[in-house]
Amino acid sequence: MSELNSSTNSASSSCGSSDGESNGVGKRAQRELKEEVVKDMAIDKMREKMDSLVHKLEKDVERKLDLLVEDLVGEVKLFNLKNYKLRELFKESSSSSISTADGGSSSSRGRNRSRTGGKLPDKEFVARNSLLTDLFEVKHIKTIYHIFVVILIIMFLNTVVHDFVDRGRINLGFRPIVAGFGKFHIALLLWSCMQIATLCVYPSFCLWVFVRKDCKKNESRKVWDISSIFGLVLYQCTFVAFVIKAVLWLDLPPASSVAVLMEMTRFVMKVHAFVRSNIPRALEKTTKTAPEDKPAYAVAVPSF
């Protein structure tokens, strides 16, 4: 009987201890649940405050923008901006019309100039301000531009705060850009090879000029010219095929592939423009001289 009583007492004590442990675990779980609820409530409260702040800023910016637009329209009506501001903004058009009345502008003279011997007319470039540069001289246009810059900054900050509060980290979206421009060093090496191949056109062109001057007979000159034209076409086709095959073989990412293919198109245009503009000059000269356009300048200037 004593043994039975001792076993009963031990069983009851073990049940009491297990109940105490379960109660401790339950209290800890309840405490953690309360902490999570409080944390969620704090985050929701912060999100509501941020949303209300952003909404308030948007309303203020929209109200100020409406006031500025109304002020601009009022000034246009009162001070007749068409006669004062637009005369300064579009002074280039008035000057071009005056030059046309005096004998035609430079562009019209270039279009009407006849091509002699297949030579392209010389282009005349005039330094002038862009339309946006002249528009930003107006005070209200500049203010509207600054407002849009502020809106862009507010949207950026809103995205950063939302990502930090909602996800616990800031995601600026640079990962797709880095992935798109992967293998950039390989693309740069391929671009260097294209640059060298493009610069090789200049000595080839000089060789064509020098050999053509040495040819005394017209038939030999014609054969040399036709073979040079076929060589140029073969060079262009080989250049395009090599670059496309290299892009596919190297398995470049999308952004790097687009950059390399666009540079390939630019180099093809450069070669054609260099040869097309220098052939008439080379045919007119009787001495053995190199073309005037330098290859580095021809590659660096804009294509259009």
UniProtKB/TrEMBL annotation:
Keyword RNA-binding set for record: no
Annotated InterPro entries: Oat_ACAT_DAG_ARE (IPR014371)
Q: Which GO terms describe its molecular function?
A: O-acyltransferase activity
What residue intervals traverse the membrane? 144-165, 185-211, 223-249
> Keywords for this entry?
Acyltransferase, Endoplasmic reticulum, Membrane, Transferase, Transmembrane, Transmembrane helix
Q: Where in the cell is it found?
A: Endoplasmic reticulum membrane
Disordered, as annotated region: 1-36, 96-121
**What is one term from the GO cellular component aspect held by the record?**
endoplasmic reticulum membrane
Q: How does it sit in the membrane?
A: Multi-pass membrane protein
Residue stretches of biased makeup (Low complexity): 1-24, 96-109
**Which GO biological process annotations does it have?**
cholesterol metabolic process
What is the name attached to this protein's record? Sterol O-acyltransferase 1
Q: Recall the taxonomic lineage recorded for the source organism.
A: Eukaryota, Metazoa, Ecdysozoa, Arthropoda, Hexapoda
